[in-house]
Amino acid sequence: MPEQVLALSARGLRKSYGALEVTKDMSFDVPEHTALGIIGPNGAGKTTLFNLITGTVKPGAGRVALFGQDITKVDAKRRCHMGIARSFQVPQPFAGLTAFENGLIAAAFGQGISEAAARDVAGEALDRTGLGPKANTLAGSLTLLDRKRLELARALATKPRLLLLDEIAGGLTEAECHDLVALIRDIRAAGTTIIWIEHVLHALLSVVDEVMVIDFGEMIAKGAPDEIMRDPRVAAVYLGPDEAELEVVHG
Ligand SMILES: Nc1ncnc2c1ncn2[C@@H]1O[C@H](COP(=O)(O)OP(=O)(O)OP(=O)(O)O)[C@@H](O)[C@H]1O
Ligand SMILES: [Mg+2]
């Protein structure tokens, strides 16, 4: 069997803010060309984990490797050049610039390429996300779905090998959510490894190969989606221990 390549490998990651331990000894692997879902209650430490992976927050301890290369000491900009991109929980476009200009900046800075090359990459990223016809619309005037598409386009413009999505499906109608999921599936099918934090479970479960559950900064379960959704520890986190017991008994 060919050796499995790991897009991401985290070992013993820890992060505290003062006395608050937000990430407690997290270790996990994400094989390339797979999609990992992350779920967990508000404040569990999910976004912090993304910050540790992208390098905007330094871990108190532990290591991160990208495609077998230790990047623990690599800064965020270089990690982006190496192929890590993310979407933000609260979309952060330059509202006064057009969709195209937003893509252009992402391509130019995210890859460190010339403006001419970045124009091509930005155009391609907008087309892939269905934003081509709105290339000249100001980002601040886009609908919520289009702002989410722009988050994806900006990430794609950096040509990621590993794409981190932070609650990108929230606030959409069912039909819009369906469109967004189709887009994420396409990105994954084109070979990009995905880690997706999401509260909209049906969207998440229709894409990912595995689900990891985080509670109080710890990974409490990781496995196939159907296994995880049947796990009483997961039900306890979401429903409270008493209700979880009833669900499991009467389920
Ligand atoms: N820069 C910071 N300084 C102090 N505390 C922080 C900082 N960033 C995060 N925290 C705290 O760390 C904990 C985890 O936050 P994080 O944003 O990672 O949670 P989350 O799982 O993404 O939550 P949500 O589902 O609400 O997005 C929270 O208690 C939060 O208040
Ligand atoms: Mg978060």
Describe the structure concisely for a colleague.
With 251 residues, this protein is α/β, with parallel strands linked by helices. The chain has helices at residues 46-54, 76-81, 99-111, 115-128, 144-156, 174-189, 201-205, 225-230, 232-239, 241-250; strands at residues 6-17, 20-31, 35-39, 61-66, 69-70, 84-87, 162-166, 193-197, 210-215, 218-223. 40% of the residues lie in helices and 25% in strands.
Blueprint of the fold:
Elements: E1 6-17, E2 20-31, E3 35-39, H1 46-54, E4 61-66, E5 69-70, H2 76-81, E6 84-87, H3 99-111, H4 115-128, H5 144-156, E7 162-166, H6 174-189, E8 193-197, H7 201-205, E9 210-215, E10 218-223, H8 225-230, H9 232-239, H10 241-250
Parallel strand pairs: 3-8, 3-9, 6-7, 7-8
Antiparallel strand pairs: 1-2, 1-4, 4-5, 9-10
Helix pairs in contact: 3-4, 3-5, 4-5, 9-10
The CATH topology of the largest domain is given as Rossmann fold
Question: What is the tally of helical segments?
Answer: 10
- Count of separate structural domains: 2
Main sheet summary:
6 strands, mixed
Strand order of the biggest β-sheet:
6-7-8-3-9-10
CATH class of the largest domain, named Alpha Beta
pLDDT < 50 stretches: none
The distinct ligands, each listed once, are: adenosine-5'-triphosphate, magnesium ion
Fraction of helical residues: 25-40%
- In CATH, the homologous superfamily of the largest domain goes by the name P-loop containing nucleotide triphosphate hydrolases
What proportion of the residues form beta strands (DSSP E)? 25-35%
Could you spell the SSE succession in H and E letters? EEEHEEHEHHHEHEHEEHHH
Structural classification: alpha/beta
